[in-house]
Every structure is written in structure tokens, then in C-alpha cells.
Specification:
Chain lengths: 465, 91
């Protein structure tokens, strides 16, 4: 195959070509490693590139294909947010604190992708411990947005968003505690799924806020997220938050099932009143609603409690739990953290137990209220972010504490939420559309996201690199 | 604030303390949105749920004797049913 086209392949396309022996995993891996070498110095998406191991995995994948022992992920290059444990490969959480940390074992999800034949290209930038970023006072610089390198990628799965959008990797695993998969997915114009809490194992993923953390897939398309989810979803008895549910899997197979007649609730108050969005974002959501109607869905107005309520609950819980996890190192190595991390987490030292418990009690109410909304609607839609990607230098350490995120409700309620590219701003920056569903409706979200991507045609546009 | 910081075991320089004040002001605002006047009994958030038993508890000696005298088969342990299902889910 022509090398120039390889980085534009989706996981689904590359998997089909590899399975048909029309594309060599070694050829694909070499092409992406060369692209990383050429483009990453200006994007800072990668913290570690594991070129030698990647080529060895690609050769093993080639043998698996020859033996007809392949899966849809055999030979597919992926990379991990640097909070996923990878045996023998540094896992730093983009922090001075773990600069020399080399895990002995893979995270469970990394193990599952390796077992499916995926090829690890390396480890990706993140906000420090999945919260402290973007920061310029760390050993590595923050990732930059491939659509405009002066702009923010979103976070905290910042390297994942940048690397996929730039065609440096075909897929990635990120983590989402308050929007950390969906925010970079929106700003970088890719797809990212925050799965239902308990669907994907978090064992071996460095925690931020254990009652809110989820691990999930990121890729160019919803279809690719479905392929990755097929490999990583399912009960892990060693993760106490993992849930054993029947019928897990078959996400990719179900993508073309009908969506006609689905009742879609439009959460207009989210981006018009609670977190006022730009005119272009509002227009994108309105256009998306019309596209869904043309697809045969029934779009109606819907409402949930204010985003500010979800945000207050989510931020208090996150801050208290993150501080508890970092208390010892914050006391002993305060200056080794970035200023952004300290601003966002140190306050947890002063949160009273009564405040934390009040937040947990209100969370129970919000979980019930959110679940009740799905009695009237199959899925809900709104903007993922209120603006296109802002400039990197405009990001402040206390971002998100004063101004709530439209992504917080899904974390607080534990429900799945998918961000897909909904359109582009007049400056050519991607805008994110968020689709939320009731617990365990991950497959339905991916189905609607996939068919929306096809109907809207947003997947044919790539960053100008 | 300095006293609260000391009580938390933190040693902060003036710049770090100023950052903490900034963060604390935001957190106070967030905490103020959360209602406190709830009924005493309204608390399902701190439930600690133990996993169900995976092995049947041994039958009391008296029950064993009675079963033996009736020559009835012993009760099937719960684990026999549960184990294959659990194994199936593992990957």
C-alpha cells in the first residue's frame, strides 16, 4: 500500500486489509513510527515510543495472520495514556513523582488488547495524574492540538487525542473522571467513549478519583471505539468496581442495526443556559438534531438537573478522593507536582467529611434523576464542549472548578457517554457532539454515533499537517 | 488558613499557600450548592455490601443426623451452581 495513506486508515479498514493479507502489520507499524518521528516533536503527544517492541509485536501479528489466528485488532497500532501500567515500559502519569516508575505487569485492558494482537507504539502524554494540566513546569511539555498547534488538546487524555487526530496511532485507551476522554475527543475531532461504570476494568490504571474513574477507548471513529471496546469490556474479578453483566460484547457487530424510531432527548439547557456555548456550537447541535431526524430518530426537548449541580458534586468528590490518594506525596514532595496539579488537588486537604458525604448523598439523587430521564428518551444529546479548542496559553490552573464541564453529568451518574465530531467551526476547528445513554447502553451509543458520523460526513476531514 | 494547612500536615511556601486559597474559594462555592437539610434516614450512599457466599456453610450437626436417618441426599452446596457461571465470565 502507498505509505502516505496508511495513517489515514481507521482500525476497521486496517483490520480488514490485514485480515485479507493486503496490508502487512510491519509495514503499517513502520509507517506510523516514521510519522511519529516526523510530527511528534511539534505535537508532544508521545512520552515514550517503544519502536523495537512494536516491530516485534507487528512481526508476531504477521505470523498470526498467516496462521489465520487473527482478530479485528491483530497488527493494529495503539498507544496508551501514560497512566496505564505497561510491563517493563515506564509509566509516569506525566509526573516527576513517578518519573522512574516501571511496572512489572500490564494493566488488565493493556493485557486484553495485547492478547487480541494489538501493537503498542508507546505511551502518551496526559495531564499530570490525569488532572494537572496543561502544565509547562513538568519534565515533559503538554501535547498540542494537530488542528492548530497553538491550541489546547483538551484533557486529561491529551496525548491520546492529539496522536489519533494526527494519525500517529489508530487507537488509544484513555481515562475519564470528569470528561478526560470526551474533552480531548471533542477538541481534537475524534471519537471517545466513557463507558458505563464497571464495564471496563481499571486494574493497573493509576487512579485519580476511584468512585468516578472509568477507562475507555478513543479512536478516529465510533466504529473503531466499538472494536476496541469489544476487546476490553467484560468482568475483571480483580477490579472491585468491575461488574459481571450478561451480554457484554458484540459492539462492532451491532453498529448497523436500525436507529429509526429511537427517541432522542435534546438537552438544550445544558449548552444554552447552564454553560452557554458559542453560536457555532449551538448551530452544530441544532444541525446534528436535524441529521438524526433525517436518520429516522424522534428528537424531543429533554431536561436534567443543572450541569452546575453535577459539577459541584463531581468536583468535590474528585478533589477529596484525589487528595486522599496523594496526601503522602503532597506532604513530602509538594514542589515536585506541577502548580496546576496543586491548585486542583490541594484544596482536598480542607474539604470536611460532612461536605464529602453531602456530595455523595446528592450524587445518589442525581443518579436516580438521570436514570428516570431515560424512561422518556432512549438517548440524550448535547454539546461535549461549549467552544472549539481554546489557545493553550489561555488555560488556567483552576479551569473547570469555576466553569463547569458539560461532561460531568455522565461521570456523576455513572452512565455511558460518547463524543463524536459533530462539525467544524468557521476557523476549521472540530466541535464535539455528546451522546449519553442509560447504564449498559454503550452499544446503542456507539451505533447511533457510527451512523451519525456516516450521515454527517465529518470523518473525511483530517488536520492540515 | 495557615492553621488548617498545618493541621493537614502540609508545609507550603507563600506561593503554594496563595494557590490553595484560590482553590479553596472555588471549593467553598461548589460545596454551597449541595443541600444539607435532608431527612435523617435518607442515606443510601454509605452502604457496604458484602459479596454473597461462594461456598455453602456446613450444615448443623443435628440437621446432618436427621438427614442421615432419613437417608436423604445432602443439600447441594451453592458453590456448585455458582462456580461454572463465574468461570465462564473470566477471560
Amino acid at each position: 500500500m502507498r505509505e502516505g495513506a496508511l495513517h489515514d486508515l481507521t482500525i476497521a479498514q486496517a483490520g480488514r486489509l490485514i485480515g485479507a493479507r493486503k496490508l502487512s502489520p510491519v509495514e503499517l507499524t513502520r509507517a506510523l513510527l516514521a510519522r511519529i518521528e516526523r510530527l511528534d516533536p511539534s505535537l508532544n503527544a508521545f512520552l515514550h515510543v517503544t519502536a523495537k517492541a512494536a516491530l516485534a509485536s507487528a512481526r508476531a501479528a504477521e505470523k498470526a495472520v498467516a496462521a489465520r489466528a487473527h482478530t479485528p485488532l491483530t497488527g493494529i497500532p495503539v498507544a496508551y495514556k501514560d497512566i496505564y501500567d505497561t510491563a517493563g515500559v515506564p509509566t509516569t502519569a506525566h509526573s516527576r513523582i513517578l518519573q522512574d516508575n516501571v511496572p512489572k505487569q500490564d494493566a488488565e485492558t493493556v493485557r486484553r488488547l495485547a492478547a487480541a494482537g494489538a501493537v503498542m507504539l508507546g505511551k502518551l502524554a496526559t495531564h499530570e495524574f490525569a488532572i494537572g494540566g496543561p502544565a509547562f513546569d513538568l519534565p515533559w511539555p503538554p501535547a498540542r492540538n494537530p488542528w492548530d498547534r497553538d491550541r489546547f488538546t483538551g484533557g486529561s487524555s491529551s496525548g491520546s487525542g492529539a496522536a489519533i487526530a494526527a494519525g500517529l496511532t489508530l487507537g488509544s485507551l484513555g481515562s475519564d473522571t470528569g470528561g478526560s476522554i470526551r474533552l480531548p475527543a471533542a477538541y481534537c475531532g475524534i471519537a471517545g467513549l466513557k463507558p458505563t461504570a464497571g464495564l471496563v476494568s481499571r486494574r493497573g490504571v493509576i487512579p485519580l478519583s476511584p468512585s468516578l474513574d472509568t477507562a475507555g477507548p478513543m479512536a478516529w471513529t465510533a466504529e473503531d471505539c466499538a472494536i476496541l471496546l469489544d476487546a476490553i469490556a467484560g468482568h475483571d474479578p480483580a477490579d472491585p468496581a468491575s461488574v459481571s453483566v450478561p451480554g457484554v460484547g458484540g459492539y462492532a457487530k451491532g453498529l448497523d442495526a436500525p436507529v429509526k424510531g429511537l427517541r432522542i432527548g435534546l438537552l438544550r439547557h445544558f449548552h444554552e443556559r447552564d454553560v452557554p456555548a458559542t453560536a457555532e456550537v449551538r448551530q452544530m447541535v441544532a444541525d446534528a438534531a436535524r441529521t438524526l431526524e433525517r436518520m429516522g430518530c424522534i428528537v424531543e426537548e429533554a431536561s436534567l438537573p443543572s450541569v452546575q449541580d453535577y459539577n459541584a458534586v463531581g468536583r468535590l468528590i474528585l478533589c477529596a478522593e484525589a487528595y486522599a490518594l496523594h496526601e503522602h506525596t503532597l506532604r513530602t514532595r509538594t514542589a515536585d507536582y506541577s502548580r496546576t496539579f496543586r491548585v486542583r488537588v490541594l484544596g482536598g486537604a480542607l474539604i470536611r467529611a460532612a461536605d464529602y458525604i453531602a456530595a455523595l448523598r446528592m450524587r445518589s439523587d442525581l443518579i436516580r434523576t438521570t436514570a428516570a430521564a431515560f424512561g422518556r428518551h432512549d438517548l440524550l444529546i448535547c454539546a461535549t464542549v461549549a467552544t472549539p479548542a481554546p489557545r493553550l496559553v489561555e488555560q488556567k490552573p483552576d479551569e473547570g472548578m469555576g466553569r463547569p464541564f458539560l461532561t460531568a453529568p455522565a461521570n456523576v451518574a455513572g452512565i455511558p457517554a460518547l463524543s463524536v465530531c459533530g462539525g467544524f467551526s468557521s476557523m476549521g476547528l472540530p466541535l464535539g457532539l455528546q451522546i449519553m445513554g442509560p447504564a449498559w447502553s454503550d452499544g446503542l451509543l456507539l451505533r447511533l454515533g457510527h451512523q451519525f458520523e456516516q450521515a454527517s460526513g465529518t470523518r473525511s476531514r483530517r488536520p492540515p499537517l | 488558613m495557615a492553621q488548617a494547612v498545618r493541621r493537614a500536615g502540609l508545609t507550603l511556601n507563600p506561593g503554594q499557600l496563595a494557590d490553595l486559597v484560590l482553590a479553596w474559594q472555588q471549593l467553598v462555592g461548589l460545596a454551597a450548592r449541595i443541600p444539607r437539610n435532608r431527612p435523617f434516614a435518607d442515606d443510601g450512599t454509605a452502604v457496604f455490601r458484602l459479596p454473597p457466599p461462594t461456598q455453602a456453610a456446613p450444615a448443623p450437626a443435628t440437621a446432618k443426623k436427621a438427614a442421615k436417618s432419613r437417608k436423604a441426599a445432602p443439600a447441594k452446596p451453592v458453590a456448585r451452581k455458582a462456580a461454572p457461571a463465574n468461570r465462564k465470565k473470566r477471560r
